Structures
1.
Amino acid sequence: MQNAKRDVIAAIATAPGRGGVGIVRISGANLSTFPFQISGINPIPRHAHFVKFLDDTGEIIDEGILLYFPGPHSFTGEDVIELQGHGGPIVLNMLLVRCLQLGARLAEPGEFTLRAYLNDKLDLAQAESVADLIDASSEQAVKSAMRSLTGEFSNQIEILVAGLIDLRMLVEATLDFPEEEIEFLQSAKAFDRLANICQQVSQVEQSAKQGSLLRDGISVVLIGQPNVGKSSLLNRLAGEEVAIVSAVAGTTRDTVRETIQINGVPIHIVDTAGLRDTEDEVELIGIQRTWRAIEQASLALLLVDAKHGVTSVEDTIIAKLPANLPLYTLHNKIDLECPEKLAGDIYVSAKLGTGIAELKSLLLSVAGWQTEMSSVFLARERHLNAIRLAKHHLECAIEVQANSLELLAEDLRLAQFALASISGGFSADDLLGEIFSRFCIGK
Ligand code: GDP
Ligand code: ZN
């Protein structure tokens, strides 16, 4: 994929369906004659031109704005043209077909961003944040994705990589002069610098963990009999944010999972209500899926009516849960009847909102969310793994210190490579394919 053919690609960049304006985007190495062919004018770069878009017979398809961004000053780094027409699916398709007639081919998902990456307009972490920004499910996630997109995350990583390169140069230089090596490294404060970098990597890890929570959230298994107040509790927890969640177009909702948000952290609720004995094949598939979700969950919440407490029905389900899954018992409807409180249990009234704030902080703290943390980057599992790997090698480096300079040099090298993979320094083609194929078309 590194040698991607720089042929002309085109796609409808706006969301499917009808809207006021719809955009067809075209990118290619040389599009200088393209605007004239589609509109009969030669545009001034980066100026908005009100034009008529014409088909091959000269008949008008639509009228709208044409923008021409000659490379390299464009999103992809190539020549880019935007046709802003009326936002109807048929008219946009006609515009797209016209582009194909003029030599473009349909862009693959994420191909515009891939070209931006290959032309050094964005690094890999920034390219990923483009998709994360589009997919963001809360305002906090948008802000964090934006911090990654503007390069704040990449810059921090770059600074660490630069520090590691300096250190490696020092250590590798001493390999050739074994007599003076230790004093040389000590006078250059090499080990202080190593400890310092390791500590900064830990900080970035914390921040990336938060970002990954914002992006992926946590799973909570909800156990509760009918009428104990599950729906009421979910609505209460979600508060006004639920409207935002359901407004996200294309949010996948299968029957066993419901997503609410607390402080912008997506909480995926896995409902065990459907976990009953059955012969029905469709239901069985659903039940299997529920169990798979349970295996990946962060905690289980057992919701009971405060009047009755835990009964044998709940006991049966609890017995089947993974032994290491933390379990909290939540007594609901304490406005009606409040039993003597057991330490470690939670007491709420979904109806009145009593105890809900405590429940929210419990969920967030189990998730590992630190409310005081500000500059969070919307990190992915891939980034976290790279940071963890780098940290591991740095810790090894600290351990061997001067005992073996060869090992020290090797650990520093591996740490540098791990960190650099975040911005794409040494990325394999299959990684790029994996990342960009998940984009939407036209981005
Ligand atoms: P689910 O079947 O577990 O989802 O339970 P629902 O959320 O549908 O609630 C069942 C009934 O209990 C409804 O009539 C709710 O209004 C009521 N309910 C839920 N939570 C409370 C509560 O905290 N206090 C009181 N008094 N009623 C509640
Ligand atoms: Zn319900």
2.
Amino acid sequence: MKILIMNGPNLNLLGQREPSIYGTGTMETYVAELRKLYPEVELEYFQSNVEGLMIDRLQATLRDGTNGVVLNAGAYTHTSIALGDCIRSLTCPVVEVHISNVYQREEYRHRSMISAACKGIIAGFGLHSYRLGIEALLRD
Ligand code: DQA
């Protein structure tokens, strides 16, 4: 089982970025924990601040044997028709995740351009949203 965790813009700053919303843990430490929790899963982590690079990496799942994607597209969630189109072109399931509960926040975060293309959505559980995303894919 090969799972890709993908983070979009500004999520490289986890641990220092608005810690009251996103917590103090870094993604590198969390991914290391996830790899220990799921030794049977080949877990790849990819982060980019660039929309096109995210699309290139997602398209690569069409040929690299990836079985599922846990995607936190950051603010591109709310704006990117291109990411939505890309997800619709993939053959593996994509789980949309958010660290914060976007529905408790500003109204512009209530709209997602990718949700309809995703298998399901997990939001509001801190970094554990990613683990729940993996669980969802393992049970898919
Ligand atoms: C986020 C929520 C988005 O609205 C925001 O732009 C992010 C992070 C989250 O994980 O809670 O960058 O996706």
3.
Amino acid sequence: MASVRFDGVTKKFGDFTAVSDLDLEMGDGEFTCLLGPSGCGKTTTLRMIAGLETPTSGRVHIGERDVTFMHPKDRNISMVFQDYALYPHMNLADNIAYPLKVRGENEAKRHARAREVADVLKIGQLLERMPSQISGGQQQRTSLARALVYPSDVYLFDEPLSNLDAKLRLEARGFLNHLQRDLGMTAVYVTHDQAEAMALATRIAVMDAGKVVQYAPPLEIYRRPATTFVANFVGNPPMNLLPVDATIADGAVHLKAEGLSAAPLPVSRAAARALQGNGKLTLGVRPEHLAVAESGERNMISGQLFANENMGPETLVTLEREDAVRFTARIFTDDSLALDGKVTLGFASEHVHLFDSNGTRLP
Ligand code: ATP
């Protein structure tokens, strides 16, 4: 096992900067998720660890080794791809054992080790089959087994679950979490699925346009998103965001917007200084922190009922305001809620997030 470190790494394709001046240290035994929308540079970052791309500038280290220009096969890494990339003409046993064959292990040893890993991954009974004769979930586990058959310093995953249907995906996610607990491997895992990152990562690097915008443990990212981009990306449904006018008085910020009543919120001196008396802010509240308001609550927002979706254990109630901003409440009840016309949602002050006009969280 080993740590991975990026020092000032930039990767350009022609004039286009895919990864921009990246500094990132992923600890030994950590499971790091690179999370972000399509095109933000996640895969390029992963491929630079693998040696499938070379940085335009900067350095990549695995443990103490500077691997910036090292050939992929000398890096002692394993990679699991989105499309599994199994060899169609080999049965599962040979597919799984392939990394050992490349390293010159004899056949008996190769097959014994392949069986061992396949048993752990619950595909031991399928070893004689060809890839075309097994399900997508089994192919995914075969590809995982091939990555785990040889002890590597770092395991790299490029959206390995994205070709699975929703049910298998959940099962495979739980399995990966279990594996990580067992093996304590150093892993870097690319995904655009925030739930996957929350469930698997010890730390998440949220990326946007070639940069890491926040790098923190999952709960920290959920509780204190650094920007509106992160707030919007992590959480399902995403955080509700509303532009508001803000005035500082008596060490508290007073928020104003049509259809909003909000109790003054104490703010730090740094935030008060940044606001310089008054200005525009963005108010954020997560759907799970909103409920249908009782009259006279301290914090309330109103609008017309837009949607009322009962999902079984929870109901999503969405209102639409005059300014077309929608607010969704995630209410944990298996009763359907009888609502119509004007709806008012309430929230507690402790669940308010505030961001400045650049979308950066107030200090
Ligand atoms: P996705 O989730 O869609 O895979 P990503 O976050 O992994 O996205 P990358 O694959 O790292 O994104 O790509 C980052 C940007 O760099 C994209 O705009 C992509 O089009 C561009 N890019 C990637 N590889 C190349 C290449 N070989 N040549 C030119 N541009 C590239």
4.
Amino acid sequence: MLKGEKNLYLLDEPKKIVITTHHKPDGDALGSSLGLYHWLKANKHQVNIILSSDFPTFLDWLPGREDVIIYPDQQEEAQELIDEADILFCLDYSALSRTNILEPVIREAKGQKWMIDHHLDPEDFADLCYWDSSAAATAQLVYTFIVDVVGDKNGITPEIATNLYSGIMTDTGSFRFRSTTSAVHHIIANLIDAGAKNWEIHEQIYNSSTESRLKFLGYCLLNCLEVIPEYNTALFAISKEDLAKFDITTGDTEGLVNYALSIKGVRLAGLFIDRTELIKLSLRSIGDIPCNEICKKHFNGGGHLNASGGSSTDDLLTTVNRFKAILPEYKEILTK
Ligand code: 5GP
Ligand code: MN
């Protein structure tokens, strides 16, 4: 869906542009932001990416990441850029609350807000909205925005291709989730032709673990995994002490939930982590089991049907027990 395309004329002249994405950006959030960043810069705009937090170390090689501004570290400069921006891109989120401390700042900014996103239930705040919940990644939508919406067929440089490939690869679990259509593979082929070195990207993202992170994985598999066979469900519950023991930082728990889902017969997997102020949870499912409904109804969150997240202000054990108490409600689809 494209809404507000009459505003596209703004890109005809150089503009001041700020790109924002969700708190604790993942590969798609940062890859789509950096892909768009390089394209806008090549088209003579003045562009900055402003994040509400740091990003995982496995993304700390993406072309252009050294230019990113972390709002809490450079608040005055970032505030000025946001105040002066003609356009604020909102990438990989459709509810402003997902930008954490940036929410009020973006809400009050006077520039136009342009959303490019694939999450369900978009909030109505954007002057331009390029949104498709069936897209595999926001990076896919940034690609079609550049190539189809704006029509810049030759605009994909190797830097753009590398960032967009990384976004699509991470959001599709390396091209294996249901969202990976033939159209996605066509775009991926075009990105490789445009200069994305697929083998290097896989190497950078998946073979960049630290020894401590790998040992943390072993520890979690041995000590924090619980399988609930009567509901085909498995979960990890990870305490603050577990995180501290292995010096775990942003992004180190990425992908952990998939180990619970990889058990034969398991159809719903959860990851519960005791973060500084909240319990953060991630759910993954197969088939029609609605992770997003569970997160929305019970854990102040949302997301996609098969991948969603939320949080809880209860303690870790209470949150996990609350989750277990919900399972009977879904017994039929969990066990069919
Ligand atoms: P993850 O489990 O990797 O943190 O998030 C998976 C998906 O769930 C994200 O792509 C996002 O759509 C959604 N999500 C994660 N956390 C939240 C949250 O706190 N609120 C909402 N609305 N969605 C979330
Ligand atoms: Mn995404």
